[in-house]
Design brief:
The complex is a heterodimer of chains A (about 450) and B (about 80). With about 450 residues, chain A is an alpha/beta fold. In chain A, about 20% of the residues lie in helices and about 30% in strands. The longest helix of chain A is centred in the middle third of the chain and has 18 residues, at about 185-205. Helix content of chain B is about 20%, strand content about 20%. The chains are: A alpha/beta (about 450), B alpha+beta (about 80). The interface of A and B includes residues 67, 308 and 340 of A.
Chain lengths: ~450, ~80
């Protein structure tokens, strides 16, 4: 791959946290050529974590979470409020919803994720049914909470759903959280931590209902949500329903691109270069942020798909570095993931990949005091740790994970719990299986064989 | 595009934050703990907080606070 020339054009699709930080890193690395940033939202890049916390608590208006720029971008072409609809790698151009085609020499895909919508469109359209991803979403929910609804229903007990339930309790609003799994946070942190999360939610007055789902949302004559029917037959009177069912990757616009992009994200190598449907690395297409999945050496080179703020920043900087660097100067994105969530007055952080582990051991502090550290192990190796109000330990465990420390860890911590034998971390499933790729193989000779995308309408019935 | 030039903007890298609370000490109207160490902050504080914000930025032991201040002409 040739080095990026001075007049070569870099296009960044998706100008949120990852896109902005990548653009800044390009300039920091001395790239002075033409730079175009495209985003479907007509707004300056803003920070999303405050949307489910400070904005709902009334500490900040929804339109006042704009990201500081940490590097002068110089001359930049901004294309805002226009979605990218296609990537034609043969010309090569990004196709936009308004019909324009933007040429590129290097492109960064940072289109992120969107919330998985409530599956019934007519119910999702009811007044009072919201899902928090954009600042408009957060403004809507903040205004719904400001008029003090009788009861808020939160659908989904992952991090976002739990944070919003926490906000409701802090505002002294009645809230019901419905989680399909056995406990909140169980998918990310396992059943052992999930049962602690359950206790915490109950202590804070959340009407927590696990192991059930919401069957239907019903509205009144004005089209406002009024009732929810649960799978156990319960009918709940509600004024607000928050849909927190996780996210889907924004990859539909790449459908014709022959890149390995689908519902699980766009696959890249560790250097943030996109992988095409044949599994070949593409040299001029890069990706960063929540939209990606990438192999990590500490985790068996399995593709990690992370929705972590810190991952977006680091991956964006690695991608930008590699976009402007010659082959031998390229670097891998192999930082150990760190994640945080704030809920019920607790600072929950994780380092590593907890659901890569099968076992968990409480290593420090006290579960009953809600201030502790727990380590996750995979085949005798430390692969992750979670801290509750113990952020100061994240760095230590990160270094232990980086150096493949044994599990159970040999810590001799002064504040270790009395009993600390490893137990099953109790994940509902070790890994969610990825959807099979919608491709078939064509050709016979080794230099003729290619993967070919099959359309759903053309798919063979099996 | 239009930028609101008056506004100070901050973002705290909470992957780095270890809860030393120096920011809460120097700019209590901008940074506060929700509990023992869950940091909540105002992303775009009012102009009269500018000086306090800068003191918080400089005091942070892990340098977790990024700030854009149109008046200062510098970034951290």
């Amino acid at each position: 791959m040739s080095e990026l020339g001075a007049t070569d054009r870099v296009v960044v699709v998706g100008a949120s946290l990852a896109g902005l930080r990548a653009a800044e890193e390009l300039r920091r690395k001395g790239f002075e050529g033409p730079l175009t940033l495209i985003d479907s939202e007509d707004a300056e890049p803003y920070d999303r974590p405050p949307l489910s916390k400070q904005v709902l608590l009334g500490m900040a208006p929804a339109d006042r979470t704009r990201l500081p720029r940490v590097q002068d971008l110089g001359e930049v072409e901004w294309i805002r409020g226009v979605a990218a609809t296609g990537l034609d790698r043969t010309r090569p151009v990004v196709e936009l919803a308004d019909g324009r085609a933007i040429p590129y020499d290097r492109i960064l895909i940072a289109t992120g994720v969107r919330n998985r919508p409530w599956p019934v469109a007519s119910e999702a359209a009811l007044g009072g049914v919201v899902s928090v991803r954009t600042r408009a979403d957060a403004a809507e929910l903040a205004s719904l909470l400001a008029v003090r609804p009788e009861r808020v229903l939160v659908i989904g007990g992952g991090f976002t759903g739990s944070e919003i339930a926490s906000v409701c309790r802090q505002l002294d609003l009645a809230v019901t959280l419905v989680e399909r799994g056995p406990a909140p946070l169980v998918g990310a942190l396992g059943g052992v931590i999930g049962s602690i999360a359950t206790e915490i939610q109950l202590e804070h007055g959340v009407d927590l209902r696990c192991g059930i789902t919401v069957d239907a949302l019903e509205g009144d004559d004005q089209g406002r949500v009024r009732q929810a029917t649960l799978s156990d037959g319960t009918r709940l009177d509600i004024d607000v329903a928050v849909v927190a069912l996780g996210a889907v990757r924004n990859t539909e616009w790449l459908r014709e691109s022959r890149l390995a992009a689908g519902p699980m994200g766009i696959a890249t190598d560790a250097g943030c270069r996109a992988i095409d449907i044949d599994g070949l690395v593409v040299d001029d297409v890069f990706a960063a942020g929540d939209v990606t999945r990438f192999p990590h050496p500490l985790y068996g080179y399995e593709f990690l798909a992370l929705e972590h703020w810190g991952n977006a920043v680091t991956q964006a900087r690695v991608a930008a570095h590699n976009m402007v660097s010659p082959t031998l100067a390229r670097v891998p994105h192999i930082a150990v993931p760190v994640f945080w969530s704030m809920q019920f007055g607790l600072n929950i952080k994780s380092v590593g990949v907890p659901n890569y582990g099968e076992e968990i051991q409480f290593t420090q502090g006290s579960v009953t005091d809600r201030t502790f550290v727990a380590a996750y192990g995979h085949q005798g190796r430390l692969v992750a740790a979670v801290t509750f109000d113990n952020a100061k330990w994240i760095d230590f465990y990160r270094r232990e994970i980086e150096t493949a420390a044994p599990f159970p860890p040999d810590l001799h911590a002064l504040d270790g719990p009395a009993t600390s034998a490893p137990i099953s971390a109790d994940f509902p499933h070790p890994w969610l299986p990825y959807d099979p790729p919608p491709v078939v193989l064509t050709g016979h000779a080794f230099d003729e064989m290619r993967a070919k995308v099959i359309r759903p309408e053309g798919a063979r019935q099996t | 595009m239009q930028f609101d030039s008056a506004s100070v903007r901050i973002v705290v890298d909470l992957t780095l934050c270890q809860g030393y609370a120096q920011c809460c000490f120097f700019a209590p109207d901008v940074f506060r703990f929700n509990g023992q160490e869950a940091l909540m902050y105002v992303p775009e504080p009012s102009d009269d907080q500018r000086e306090r914000v800068w003191r918080a930025v400089e005091a942070c032991p892990v340098q977790a606070i990024a700030v854009e201040d149109p008046d200062a002409g510098e970034e951290a």
